[in-house]
């Protein structure tokens, strides 16, 4: 006689049912590596919806062109090749015209922040040709690509991506998934990264919205505020040519932070070609010019410009463009 099997417990049957259903349900994988953890962090810290954050990231694309672009930055060129990119007759003439067109606003913001207006103009001139080219890449694509697919600088760009997802809507020029900018994820006329928007962007027109794409007061004041918060010295020098003598002490300079009083550099054989305070904190930059090495004393305000972009070439281009714009506008107009 065959024994009748005992009935399965109801809980056991329920577990089997769940396992069977699970086997028919596809596993939902994140679109990008590290996406799940990033979404958890942003949702936990901001209260934003994980579903909405995932939807944004699912719509972003890794772009090989962005990885290619970051591997060949213009700052890798020598000064003799870098300078002609930014110090063109057109960029200078456009800067003079731009300053004149917006003179009242620029001078007002310059006085308010203590930043020479020609340097605000030079920043937007170097960064975006006075707003004419703010970038073609989707900011979300750029930061996803560099933050999640570019190991050499993943830490920095993941931080920027996290901040982009965390920013309030009134700190952005439009819906997050429509923003465009540089291959590095910078946006607006002044090319601010998300952490810079968080820390330095200003609602200068007081409309309750920071708009670095469409509001000139916000754009100009944000650049000036960035300089001030990094230690800009009102009326201070930026850079000046130095002439080494035959016995000048060779110097190894690793950054642009002012390290010595100018008189120490003079004692080491580097003479200024214009009157400067002997006590002025300074550094020395050696650039590869078209006719050989160029020696430059650089000061606190030069260092501040390198907080915008760490390259001394960038800071020198901004400085020389600002001087050319000032000369084109005339001293009566270009306020200091």
TrEMBL record:
Q: For this UniProt entry, which residues form the secretion signal?
A: 1-29
Q: Does the keyword Cytoplasm apply?
A: no
**Which residues act catalytically here?**
127
Q: Which GO terms describe its biological process?
A: peptidoglycan catabolic process
PANTHER family (alphabetical): MEMBRANE-BOUND LYTIC MUREIN TRANSGLYCOSYLASE B
What positions belong to coiled-coil segments? none
Q: Which domain of life is it from?
A: Bacteria
- CDD domains this protein is in? Slt35-like
MF terms per GO, please?
peptidoglycan lytic transglycosylase activity
Key words of the record: Signal
Record protein name field: Lytic murein transglycosylase B
